[in-house]
Structures are given as structure tokens and as C-alpha cells.
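Page 47, continued from p. 46.
Same chain as before, 627 aa.
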Amino acid sequence: MADDLEQLVEKLDCSEKDEDGENKHVFLVAVKTRLEDGKGEEIKRLLCDDKYENFVKTIGWDLIPVLCTHIGGLQDDSEDCTLDILNRIAEVCNPKEILLVFLEEVDKFLENAHFRKLIKPIQTVLRRIPRHSSLSMNIVFSTFHAHVQTIKLPNTTGMNKREVKQLMEEDKSFEKVERTVTALLDFVAPFVFQVHIGLKKTLTEDEQLENERMKSEVERFLLKLLDYPLAQMDLSRQTPSDDKKDSDEENHSNVYRTCAEQIMHYLRSMLCSYNRLMNYGKINAFGYEQEASRERDKDGQDEEDEMSENIKSQCSELLPLLGLSCFSYLTIVEEIEGDHLPSVYSPLHLLEINLMYIISLFRRPEDTVISKGIELTFSLVEKADDGTIPHTILDKSGYMEIAGCMERVMVGHPSKPLRQRAVQFLLMYIKKFNYHGRYKLLRHLVIKTKHSGVAGLLVGVLKDQVDETLKVGKGTEWFTGSHMINLLKAMMKLDKGPLTDLLQESDRIMAVLNCLRFLFLRDSITENKSGIWNELEYIEKEFLEVLEKGIGMSKSHFAQELEIFLQERKNKEKSNVNVSVSGEPLPGLPPQQQLQVLKSAQQMLDVMNSIVARVYEVIGAEKKKGV
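Result:
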């Protein structure tokens, strides 16, 4: 049989080129049959023989699809032979022609193991294209990254580290990502080296131009890998752990960090301008906003006019925003190749040029991406001294939005560590501004927030700022007098009067009561530096009296609910009794839990009432002093 196949090869090799010839079809069928029978060694011996090189050049185009159907996840001698033949074809056939055939096979087979085995021959082909290889690179890199994007990672939002670790062990997508990115970085290595050598050599003008084009293509591809999938991975430096189980997780995470470090090393080797990449988002902010707007509106548009087509074309030329954001995170937070940043950049300038990157990280739903946004913002802001950021900067786009992004994490994110980190940042961020800026930011947040817990936090910030102002005598224009009072009034507001849901608003109300008690104690009626005593009548009539009435009504409501609950429990025929808290029924809770809810509500109202009483006590005591 082997002799018959060799005779057929010799016959085809001696005949004139005939792509549709009967003998060629017979040969391709024979190859397919032998591969299926596990006789790949026979084919390899023939096609890797130098005397049949011309034959391989003529048959390679047709042979690639046949061979590609016999590679996949299995490791056996036949598959190894198939890969050797594909590499032989890559080495001798017309590179521009067979590159297209290989890429068609990449598009055809979405199985990841199949894809990874085609990377090496495609690398061989691409390296053989003598000139203008940047155009071919563009096609290859686009095809490769399109495949990477087909590997969908599971949602890990709200999971703790151990849960993520378990998911990474069970879900094969993570393994696919790890192997694929590692293989692609090996693929791109010789092209990085080629660019690096080209930058050192004396080249002609055309060669310099081509080298720069190649550099741009490689840079874009590396940033795309940062964009997806590496931005979704934990790229932080792992600290050594004494726990063996934890060390396994650290080693797994370090694979992704190693890939990120390799990308940063490649960018440095090609002398990519860190200054340009860091400023790229700010310079192209309009293009990115147009791209985001187009993504939001595309479902509602049936047709695109010529202008939108032009915008679409311009957006496609932009570097990937999330990839640039990840680059900035790795440079500034993880300090990977961070010595390439210009040392003359001030913290405020770095913050300004990174605003687009920060906001893009916060717009994503993944924990790991949001975490990068928080840490990047933290690293940039904490370097500024307290009170040094001018209030005028808040009029620029992005600075208020940072605070809004943090608030959304504080309120709505399921991850407790991220919520806590966002709180830490917001408190620090406010302090970095001058007194006018602190007031301006506080006022913006107070007006915007609908969450009682955030409002309570802001009341605490206001209290601390008034205390600081009274101590050091600075910021009096903003944290004493009418400005401070107006801000406090906004925080005291009970939208529905005594019918306000006091339990839902308890965090804000308790914070306001404590703030009032503190101010009345801190700033005596005789000094009245803050101006709080000038508003005593308003505070008593519009807040304290209304609140007292609301507490009384709420206590009566819960006392009635408790009485009904206890009476029905005595005579109950069903296992559960439904009660309502804050106007919302609590169906399905066991009786003991329902009872606990009612008692907790009563206790909260009692505490609130006691603080109101203490505020009145302070007011009364200070009035006596002033007489």
C-alpha cells in the first residue's frame, strides 16, 4: 500500500499542474483513509522527503483541509505525523496563499485544542512572508483574537476567593484561556524580536515604515489580549501563604500575572511609548464616547447613515480601551515596567489622563475589572496631599463621575471587600480637595444619593469637616454659616413628613441626629461659630418635631402588628403568619423570625427616640447657659 501511494505521488509530481485532476482526488482520498487507519507515518515519510518538495507545493493548498480534520485533543502518533506534515506545508508552500487556507481552518474549527495546534504552522507561514507582512499580521491577529473571544468565562461576581478557586478548577474555560494566551504569547515572540532588532538596525525608509507598521500591529494585538481575557483575571501580586491550599490558588493566578508581565515586557522591548499609551484615552476620548454611544444605540437603529459609518470606521482604528486601562493598572498599581513612566508627571496629571481608563473599568460588571478600577484610582489619588486638589477641577468631565462610580459599588455590588474598599476611597477622595472642593463634592453626592447608608456616611463626613473647620479656622466659608446649614437641611429632609419610612431611612436619620447632638455640644450657644444655633427653630419644627411624630406613629403601627401576630399565633391553623415591615409583607418567614423582625424594628425606633431626647437635652442645657 505504501508503494502504491508513493507511485501515485511520483505520477502526480511528474504530471503537469492540474488542480481538478482525477489522480489528485485519488491521492487526497488515500491520505484521508490512511489517517483514519492510523497510518500517518507513511504520508509523513513521503511528503517530508525533499525530493517531493515541488509536489507538496502544488498539493498543499488542497491537503491542509484534509489534514486539519484529523487534529484535535487526542495525542497519538498519527496526530503528531499530521502536525509534522502541516509544518512541512507551512515551510515550503507559497506563504500568502496557504496563510488564507490556514485561517479558514481556524474559523471553521472552534474547538480550542484544534486552534492551538494550528498556531505553530501559521507562525511559520507568517515569518516567511518577506515584505508588507504587517497586512498579513493584521488578518492573523484579528482572526486569533476573534477565536479567543469565543472562550466565554463564567460569571464570578460576588464570589469569594475560595469559590472562585473552586470554579476555576471545575470549569474548563479557565484552562482553555490559560493555554491559549500562553500559546499566543509564544506565537508573537519572534515578531517582537524582529521589531526590536529593526529598531536597532540602520534601515531604508521603506523598511522603517514596515517595521513601524509591524510594531503597531503587535502592540494592538497585545493590548487586545489585555482587553480580553486578561482584564477579567486577577493580575495582582500574590503574597506568600502558609496555607498549602491557598498556595495552589496563588500558583494558578500567577499564570495570568506571568502572561501580563510578558506582555508588558514585549511592549517595552518594542520601545512602545508609555507616554503615548497613557495619554491615548484622553486624546481619543471623543472617539471612545462615540463608540460607547453607538453600542448603546445599535439595537434601535435599522440603518446607519454615511456619518455613522465614518464614526464606525474611526472607532475600529482605536486601540482597545479596556486593554489600555489594564495596561495603566499594571504600570501604576502593579508597578510592572513602571519605571518607563515620565517622572515629571504629577499625581494630579496622572489622574487626569487616566480618567477615561478608570471610568471604563467601572462600567464593566466583573469583580476583577471593577477591583482594578478601584485600585488604579486609589493609587493615583492617594499620592496627592490632602487639600491640594482645586475645586475647579470638579467642573471637568470625569471627576464627579469617579465619586458616582464608587457610590454605585458601595450601594449595589455584592462583594463586601469591594464595597468596603469603595468606602475607603470615597472618604480619602473628599479629603484630597480644598475646602471649597470638599463642599462641592459633598453637595453633589447628597443631592444625587438615594441610599440611606451612603447619606449617613456623608453626614458623618460633614460633621468631621465642621469639627476640623472649627479647630483650625480654615474653610469657614463652606463648613460654617449658610453653606453648611443648607447642606445639613438637605440631609435632614423628611420627604413624607411623619409618614416617612423611618426604618428605611434609619442610617441617614441616626447620622443626622448624632451630627446635631455633636454640633450643639461642640459649638456652644454663646460662641455659635458654625451658625447652627441660628437655625434652631427650623431644626426643631421641621425635623425634630416631625420626627417625633413619625416615631410615635411607627411605634403604634409595630405595636399593633406585634399584637396581631401574637394573637394569630395563639389561634393559628397555618404554620406561617404574614406581617409587614415598612409597608412590605414578609411572607414565608418562620414565626420566630417574623417576631424577631418586629422586635428589631421596635428597638430601632426606641434608639432613635432616645437620641432625639438627648438632642433636646443638649439644646435645653445650652439655652440655660446662654441666659
